[in-house]
Design goal:
Blueprint (H helix, E strand, L loop, with lengths): L3 E3 L2 H9 L3 H7 L1 E5 L1 H9 L6 E4 L11 E4 L2 H7 L8 E6 L11 E5 L5 H13 L4 E4 L9 H7 L8 E3 L2 H5 L4 E5 L5 E2 L10 E5 L8 H4 L4 E4 L11 H12 L1
Parallel strand pairs: 1-4, 3-4, 6-7, 6-11, 7-8, 9-11, 9-12, 10-12
Antiparallel strand pairs: 2-5, 3-5
Helix pairs in contact: 5-6, 5-9
Protein backbone atom coordinates (compact mmCIF):
# COMPACT_ATOMS: atom_id res chain seq x y z
CA UNK A 1 0.00 0.00 0.00
CA UNK A 2 1.39 3.41 -0.97
CA UNK A 3 2.51 5.67 1.85
CA UNK A 4 0.26 8.65 2.64
CA UNK A 5 2.31 11.79 2.08
CA UNK A 6 1.97 15.46 2.93
CA UNK A 7 1.33 17.84 0.06
CA UNK A 8 3.97 20.51 -0.54
CA UNK A 9 3.09 24.19 -0.68
CA UNK A 10 4.39 24.37 -4.24
CA UNK A 11 2.10 21.53 -5.28
CA UNK A 12 -0.88 23.19 -3.59
CA UNK A 13 -0.15 26.39 -5.51
CA UNK A 14 -0.01 24.41 -8.75
CA UNK A 15 -3.33 22.68 -8.02
CA UNK A 16 -4.98 25.98 -7.10
CA UNK A 17 -4.14 27.34 -10.54
CA UNK A 18 -6.20 24.54 -12.09
CA UNK A 19 -9.32 26.46 -11.07
CA UNK A 20 -8.50 28.73 -14.01
CA UNK A 21 -9.70 27.56 -17.42
CA UNK A 22 -6.53 28.54 -19.28
CA UNK A 23 -4.32 26.68 -16.81
CA UNK A 24 -6.63 23.64 -16.79
CA UNK A 25 -6.52 23.44 -20.57
CA UNK A 26 -2.77 23.97 -20.75
CA UNK A 27 -2.03 21.23 -18.21
CA UNK A 28 -4.88 18.90 -19.19
CA UNK A 29 -5.72 18.40 -15.51
CA UNK A 30 -8.64 19.16 -13.19
CA UNK A 31 -9.26 18.82 -9.44
CA UNK A 32 -12.60 17.24 -8.54
CA UNK A 33 -14.11 16.81 -5.09
CA UNK A 34 -16.51 14.51 -3.29
CA UNK A 35 -16.54 10.77 -2.70
CA UNK A 36 -19.72 10.26 -4.73
CA UNK A 37 -18.17 11.71 -7.89
CA UNK A 38 -14.83 9.98 -7.31
CA UNK A 39 -16.60 6.64 -6.79
CA UNK A 40 -18.74 7.11 -9.90
CA UNK A 41 -15.68 7.86 -12.01
CA UNK A 42 -13.99 4.76 -10.59
CA UNK A 43 -17.05 2.71 -11.63
CA UNK A 44 -16.59 4.17 -15.12
CA UNK A 45 -13.02 2.85 -15.10
CA UNK A 46 -11.46 6.27 -14.47
CA UNK A 47 -8.98 6.31 -11.59
CA UNK A 48 -7.61 9.48 -9.98
CA UNK A 49 -4.00 10.47 -10.51
CA UNK A 50 -3.72 11.74 -6.92
CA UNK A 51 -6.01 11.82 -3.86
CA UNK A 52 -6.19 14.69 -1.34
CA UNK A 53 -7.73 13.81 2.02
CA UNK A 54 -8.67 16.14 4.88
CA UNK A 55 -10.68 13.69 7.00
CA UNK A 56 -10.35 10.34 8.74
CA UNK A 57 -11.99 8.30 5.98
CA UNK A 58 -9.07 7.31 3.75
CA UNK A 59 -10.16 5.42 0.61
CA UNK A 60 -7.83 3.19 -1.34
CA UNK A 61 -7.36 3.25 -5.09
CA UNK A 62 -4.70 0.91 -6.41
CA UNK A 63 -1.76 2.80 -7.84
CA UNK A 64 -3.00 6.24 -6.72
CA UNK A 65 -0.78 8.35 -4.49
CA UNK A 66 -2.64 9.71 -1.45
CA UNK A 67 -1.90 12.98 0.34
CA UNK A 68 -3.09 14.35 3.67
CA UNK A 69 -4.11 18.01 3.45
CA UNK A 70 -5.69 20.66 5.65
CA UNK A 71 -9.24 21.87 5.05
CA UNK A 72 -7.77 25.24 4.17
CA UNK A 73 -5.73 23.54 1.43
CA UNK A 74 -8.88 21.96 -0.02
CA UNK A 75 -10.48 25.40 -0.01
CA UNK A 76 -7.58 26.62 -2.14
CA UNK A 77 -7.56 23.81 -4.70
CA UNK A 78 -11.32 23.17 -5.05
CA UNK A 79 -13.70 25.51 -6.84
CA UNK A 80 -16.65 25.21 -4.42
CA UNK A 81 -17.01 27.33 -1.29
CA UNK A 82 -17.33 24.41 1.12
CA UNK A 83 -15.60 21.41 -0.48
CA UNK A 84 -15.99 17.82 0.65
CA UNK A 85 -13.14 16.38 2.77
CA UNK A 86 -11.74 14.48 -0.22
CA UNK A 87 -10.63 15.63 -3.66
CA UNK A 88 -8.69 14.09 -6.52
CA UNK A 89 -6.68 15.01 -9.58
CA UNK A 90 -7.83 13.79 -13.00
CA UNK A 91 -7.09 14.30 -16.64
CA UNK A 92 -9.73 16.57 -18.18
CA UNK A 93 -12.50 15.12 -20.38
CA UNK A 94 -11.54 15.62 -24.01
CA UNK A 95 -13.57 16.17 -27.16
CA UNK A 96 -13.92 13.36 -29.69
CA UNK A 97 -13.93 12.91 -33.41
CA UNK A 98 -17.49 12.73 -34.72
CA UNK A 99 -18.27 9.14 -35.62
CA UNK A 100 -21.52 7.37 -36.37
CA UNK A 101 -24.50 8.27 -34.20
CA UNK A 102 -28.26 7.87 -34.08
CA UNK A 103 -29.26 10.84 -31.92
CA UNK A 104 -27.13 13.90 -31.18
CA UNK A 105 -27.91 17.14 -29.36
CA UNK A 106 -26.48 20.48 -30.51
CA UNK A 107 -26.36 23.45 -28.12
CA UNK A 108 -25.86 27.03 -29.25
CA UNK A 109 -23.96 29.20 -26.77
CA UNK A 110 -24.84 27.25 -23.64
CA UNK A 111 -23.26 29.21 -20.80
CA UNK A 112 -24.44 27.67 -17.53
CA UNK A 113 -22.12 24.88 -16.26
CA UNK A 114 -24.86 23.35 -14.12
CA UNK A 115 -27.19 23.09 -17.10
CA UNK A 116 -24.51 21.55 -19.29
CA UNK A 117 -23.57 19.01 -16.63
CA UNK A 118 -27.20 18.02 -16.10
CA UNK A 119 -27.62 17.62 -19.86
CA UNK A 120 -24.64 15.26 -20.01
CA UNK A 121 -26.04 13.23 -17.13
CA UNK A 122 -29.51 12.88 -18.67
CA UNK A 123 -28.15 12.26 -22.16
CA UNK A 124 -25.91 9.46 -20.89
CA UNK A 125 -28.75 7.96 -18.86
CA UNK A 126 -31.19 7.89 -21.79
CA UNK A 127 -28.86 6.83 -24.58
CA UNK A 128 -28.08 9.99 -26.55
CA UNK A 129 -24.96 9.26 -28.60
CA UNK A 130 -23.25 12.63 -28.96
CA UNK A 131 -23.25 16.17 -27.54
CA UNK A 132 -22.27 18.97 -29.94
CA UNK A 133 -21.50 22.47 -28.67
CA UNK A 134 -21.01 25.76 -30.46
CA UNK A 135 -17.41 26.97 -30.06
CA UNK A 136 -18.40 29.76 -27.64
CA UNK A 137 -20.20 27.43 -25.23
CA UNK A 138 -18.91 26.84 -21.71
CA UNK A 139 -16.02 24.49 -20.99
CA UNK A 140 -16.86 20.80 -20.50
CA UNK A 141 -13.74 20.41 -18.32
CA UNK A 142 -15.06 22.91 -15.77
CA UNK A 143 -15.35 21.23 -12.34
CA UNK A 144 -18.93 22.54 -12.12
CA UNK A 145 -19.88 20.77 -15.37
CA UNK A 146 -18.17 17.53 -14.36
CA UNK A 147 -19.77 17.61 -10.91
CA UNK A 148 -23.28 18.27 -12.28
CA UNK A 149 -22.80 15.50 -14.87
CA UNK A 150 -21.69 13.04 -12.15
CA UNK A 151 -18.84 12.15 -14.48
CA UNK A 152 -21.01 11.48 -17.54
CA UNK A 153 -18.97 13.92 -19.63
CA UNK A 154 -16.10 11.41 -19.45
CA UNK A 155 -18.29 8.71 -21.04
CA UNK A 156 -20.48 10.52 -23.54
CA UNK A 157 -18.66 11.73 -26.68
CA UNK A 158 -18.74 15.49 -27.28
CA UNK A 159 -17.28 17.96 -29.72
CA UNK A 160 -17.19 21.71 -30.27
CA UNK A 161 -18.47 22.40 -33.77
CA UNK A 162 -19.59 25.41 -35.76
CA UNK A 163 -23.31 25.21 -36.46
CA UNK A 164 -22.86 25.30 -40.25
CA UNK A 165 -20.55 22.30 -40.03
CA UNK A 166 -23.17 20.48 -37.94
CA UNK A 167 -25.92 21.34 -40.41
CA UNK A 168 -23.84 19.82 -43.20
CA UNK A 169 -23.14 16.45 -41.59
CA UNK A 170 -25.72 14.87 -43.89
CA UNK A 171 -28.25 13.92 -41.21
CA UNK A 172 -31.76 15.10 -40.36
CA UNK A 173 -31.69 18.42 -38.48
CA UNK A 174 -34.52 19.31 -36.09
CA UNK A 175 -34.91 22.47 -34.02
CA UNK A 176 -36.43 22.58 -30.54
CA UNK A 177 -38.78 25.56 -30.64
CA UNK A 178 -41.66 26.78 -28.48
CA UNK A 179 -43.60 27.24 -31.73
CA UNK A 180 -42.41 24.01 -33.33
CA UNK A 181 -44.40 22.44 -36.16
CA UNK A 182 -44.87 19.10 -34.37
CA UNK A 183 -45.54 18.38 -30.71
CA UNK A 184 -43.00 16.08 -29.10
CA UNK A 185 -45.77 13.67 -28.11
CA UNK A 186 -46.60 13.25 -31.82
CA UNK A 187 -43.01 13.16 -33.08
CA UNK A 188 -41.88 9.90 -34.66
CA UNK A 189 -38.15 9.76 -35.43
CA UNK A 190 -37.17 8.01 -38.63
CA UNK A 191 -34.38 5.47 -38.91
CA UNK A 192 -31.85 8.03 -40.13
CA UNK A 193 -29.49 9.89 -37.76
CA UNK A 194 -30.86 13.07 -36.17
CA UNK A 195 -29.35 16.19 -34.65
CA UNK A 196 -31.65 18.15 -32.33
CA UNK A 197 -30.77 21.84 -31.94
CA UNK A 198 -31.21 23.81 -28.71
CA UNK A 199 -30.71 27.54 -28.27
CA UNK A 200 -29.08 29.40 -25.41
CA UNK A 201 -30.72 29.67 -22.00
CA UNK A 202 -31.54 33.34 -22.45
CA UNK A 203 -32.38 33.71 -26.13
CA UNK A 204 -33.13 30.31 -27.65
CA UNK A 205 -31.93 29.51 -31.16
CA UNK A 206 -30.86 32.56 -33.12
CA UNK A 207 -33.15 33.50 -36.04
CA UNK A 208 -30.24 32.89 -38.41
CA UNK A 209 -29.84 29.27 -37.30
CA UNK A 210 -33.57 28.68 -36.93
CA UNK A 211 -34.03 29.79 -40.53
CA UNK A 212 -31.61 27.11 -41.74
CA UNK A 213 -33.49 24.23 -40.10
CA UNK A 214 -36.62 23.01 -41.85
CA UNK A 215 -38.10 20.69 -39.21
CA UNK A 216 -39.01 21.69 -35.66
CA UNK A 217 -40.68 20.20 -32.61
CA UNK A 218 -42.07 21.68 -29.41
CA UNK A 219 -42.54 20.33 -25.90
CA UNK A 220 -46.23 20.58 -24.95
CA UNK A 221 -46.89 22.23 -21.59
CA UNK A 222 -49.93 22.77 -19.43
CA UNK A 223 -50.60 25.90 -17.45
CA UNK A 224 -49.22 29.35 -18.06
CA UNK A 225 -45.48 28.64 -18.17
CA UNK A 226 -43.90 29.94 -21.36
CA UNK A 227 -40.95 27.56 -21.27
CA UNK A 228 -38.90 25.22 -19.10
CA UNK A 229 -35.22 25.19 -18.20
CA UNK A 230 -32.83 24.17 -21.00
CA UNK A 231 -31.54 21.13 -19.13
CA UNK A 232 -35.12 20.02 -18.41
CA UNK A 233 -36.04 20.38 -22.09
CA UNK A 234 -33.05 18.30 -23.14
CA UNK A 235 -33.81 15.68 -20.48
CA UNK A 236 -37.44 15.38 -21.60
CA UNK A 237 -36.40 14.90 -25.22
CA UNK A 238 -33.67 12.41 -24.28
CA UNK A 239 -36.19 10.35 -22.32
CA UNK A 240 -38.73 10.51 -25.14
CA UNK A 241 -36.14 9.22 -27.60
CA UNK A 242 -35.00 6.38 -25.35
Amino acid sequence: MAEILNLSRARISFLAKLKQKKFRQAEGLVVLEGMRLISQLFDFGISPLELYIAGDDIPQFKGTQRYMVKRSDLNRICDSENPAPIAALYEIPRSSEIGEFKHAFYFQEISDPGNLGTIFRSAEAFGIDLILLSPNSCEVASPKVIRASLGACYRLPFAYLDVDAALNLGVRNIALDMDGDVSLKDFLPTGEPHIFYFGSEAHGLSPEIRGKIKDSISIPMRGEMESVNLAISASILAYQLS
